[in-house]
């Protein structure tokens, strides 16, 4: 097991050997698994909350109508889709794909889950972006805050995994804490 101090040293070394760019680079954690037989159905599909939020938080789309839709708008969700817009998306696959690719996470009202499954299930499922159901009286801001500081780790048919842990403007210790959490 690697300690946070060792991770901090590795991050400092990686930053020192890298040349400067005209943009803010992301830092990713790569892991290679050993002694695992991929053919026996090994897969990982997890959402991990990072302890230190990155400068560019994950984008979250909320599928809700009525009171929960209003709460999501007040909580400053990146996009709120109501049931009318869902039925409109059912007719336009191209717009649906564009919507799905532009968001990292999806949350949905439990009452809308059957409609979401019918309309967007074929597109969300293979990408591993099926919406997380939100109970009716759950605090939507807590869900949004949790998912904005999260990353999705997905491994299928390979012995390696990578995910973003931050960007070069973050402190080395914060990056090490995020890497250690994963």
Automatic annotation (TrEMBL):
InterPro entries: Ribosomal_uL1, Ribosomal_uL1-like, Ribosomal_uL1/biogenesis, Ribosomal_uL1_3-a/b-sand, Ribosomal_uL1_CS
Molecular function per GO: RNA binding; structural constituent of ribosome
Keyword entries, A-Z: Ribonucleoprotein, Ribosomal protein
Gene Ontology CC terms: large ribosomal subunit
UniProt keyword annotation of Ubl conjugation present: no
Pfam families: Ribosomal_L1
Family as reported in the entry's similarity comment: Belongs to the universal ribosomal protein uL1 family.
UniProt name for this protein: Ribosomal protein
